[in-house]
Sequence to fold (897 residues):
Amino acid sequence: MVEIFEKLGYKLQTCKTCGQEFYSQVDRDTCGDAPCDEYGFIANPATDKPYNLYEIQKVFKEFLESEGHTAIDRYPVLAKRWRDDVFLVGASIFCFQPWITSGLVKPPANPLEIAQPSIRLNDVDNVGRTGRHMTCFTMGSHTVINTEEDFIYWEDETIRLCHEFFKSIGINTEEITFIKSWWSGGGNEGPCYEVCCRGVELATLVFIQYETLEDGSKKEIPIKVVDTGYGLERIAWISQGTPTAYDACFAPVVDKLRELTGVEINEDIQGRNAQIAGMMDIEDIGDLKELRQQVADSLNLSLEDYLEEAEPMEAIYIIADHTRCLAFMIADGIIPSNVKEGYLARLVLRRTIRFMKELNMKESLADIMAIQLDFLSKFYPEIRDSEEHIMNIITLEEERYATTVKKGKSIVKRSIKRLKKEGKNEMPLDMLIDLYDAHGIPPETVVEMAGDDFTVNVPDNFFTQVAGAHEKDESNVKSTFKVDFPETELLFYKDFYQQEFEAEVLGVIEKDGDQCLIFDKTIFYPEGGGQPSDIGEIFIDGEVFKMSYAEKVNNVVLHHVDEVPQDIAGKTITGKLDWNRRITLARHHTGTHLVIAAARKVLGQHIWQAGSQNNLSRARIDLSHYKRITQEELNEIEKLANEYVMANIDLDIQFHTRDEAQKLYGFVLYQGGIVPGKMIRVVKIPGIDVQACAGTHVLRTGVVGPIKINKTERVQDGVERIDFSAGIAAIDSIQHDNELLRESSSIFKVDNDQLPKTCDRFFSEWKAQKNEIDKLKSQIASLKMNSLADDYDEINGLKVVSELMESDFKELQKIATDFTDNGKADVVIMGNNDGKIVGAASQNAIDNGIKINEVIKTAAGVLGGGGGGRLTLAQGAGKNADKMDEAIQTAIDLIKG
Fold:
């Protein structure tokens, strides 16, 4: 038994319902958590006074400060700013993994206090329906990083602080229970206590002692972490005794939404719903349906009457919750898109719109977001600072959603038609998920379009399933290739301009079918960070070997070469660098830092690097941005980047411990990606940009030379790519563009400055002439149709027209369908001298068994090609145009049967 429990009067007991062991100051049969205990605080607050969410945050902070803890600011909810395994912060400990919990970085304070907004979408479908589930919640924590040299406190003090805090806000400690359990998450685990009061869990006290290994086993770690998580929303809830946590935590937003919609909150229904939901482990669709039925039964209502009352209230709560979640997501740098964290933001955003539509709200999402921002910004000034950016994205995304739904209807129609053709009358769940995943089509749109003769069942946990498949970043696959050699000394960090070196051969290994030399030192930069490797030559005993590629595995550089003698370990080699390649790549790499800095200044602070690649003739950088970059913005970025070049600023490149670097520069260090290791190389362009970067760089910005932006393109939703060239490569690109300009001007026989006007005139004239040609073609087609109207054969009671004509594909189709659509013929077969053949059939012909698509497919085979189409219109083509008469005759023979 932990000593502090005895001092505080707690006794170890066993729950007679669930069998869990727990500590309590009084004898009791149950552990204090649902479903063993019902909620006992609704309309019966557990504290001595009510607290709203921000009041309880303040009380929590002040209590821990009085106990020797230092309060720190919240972290962004976008966890990928400092780690590469998850997208979002799901708990306060995510902020400190892996660097602080592994000991590579010192904590910002120790012990510390934080109130961290956290996002979990693994039960998004339960939000608004259970009274307690939220997409975004605030986890209060007192965290301690214990080392052998500085062991601050462990279980006893953690439990004492928890007991004293709840006592300080007026909770009767005899109602508190500490349930023994086990916690794991984010790669760590350890024993814990779940702290409950009146049927609801209020806090979890975790004592992290282990690393969770890939095979599921655990390894003890030297650093012992006290990781506590207090559900501040739940504490505010039990202090007020409101029917739901939503009423307690964002009442002003809920009230405003009720005012706009006219929805009345039935406290009896919501309170009973929350109490029954608290007794259930709401995990799947079946649980949610059971919850609804139980609440309806307990209130003597039919399920239909209950849903009519409850669903509008649930929609209000969902909108209030989701807009809060979106505010943090977008303010902290997430751009809604169709991949990764952007996918999750878009999911939350579009669910919000869905429930607004269910309430028939006339307001835009931006209007509702403004209500939420006004509420949040009183407590989070950074939300106010990002308001314009948030509203721009919300407005744009709402427009995109409307477009997606409009376009998606045709996709849904085709999908349903295909399923019906296969004899199916119900849409499989995987197809429903794919329509949302791949095309953004919400399930309710599919339901609307299904009609009465086709079934679409949308599970209540649809979005939970979808979100669950996207919450972890699975893209960072680590190499399993291992080498057992000493770390390679990297000479290029000591002298960027060194072009030759001598080194000792430590060994030769094979990788990917190549021979790889390993030296004690090297000047060859190994590929990494979007920069290709150096190349060059290696001299061994008078022989020259081409070094075509270098890579780094576990801090050992592998030099890929042609076949080399195996007995060279211990020999001294000379290496010579391809300097032109090195300086070109370095110019592009430093240029990349300048371009992203310029883009951030022009486009906004939300700009974050999403990828880069430096090559010899050009480089590209991918930026997180919510709309296309205009030409004016591109010009400004290019101009600003060149101003940075001309300022000829000395780069400040230094190695820091990760701890020092993060204290100096924060998470902006990692905009180029997460850099491993305790020591990191920081490339700083004073006043312009700073990044953790292992690449080679010029030593002054002036050495980059001119920067020319070649183009921009959209890589995917939320990611814009800038393609640019620097130095000699920029000159080459400029000269190439000038040559194109000169050639174009020469063709038109005008000066360069007259080219746009001349092109516009020629295009206008060409367009007018094309329209005239199309008009003449139409008249010719009419004449041809008139001449053919009476020139038909009657085959099996059907009027059949066949002809070889000098017309293009479109004309053939137009003539053929005009005949069959207007009763001039039942079957039309037409071909041209380009090897194109067209067939059309009237409804009368179809009723008489004519399958024109099969006829044309066979006829096109005579031409050495293929064809097909619908029963009314088909087309084909082949390379043997000289056999067109034979092809047409084949079609006629098939019609004759």
Summary: Residues 234 and 349 are 24 Å apart (CA to CA). The radius of gyration is 35 Å. The first strand starts at residue 11 and ends at 14.
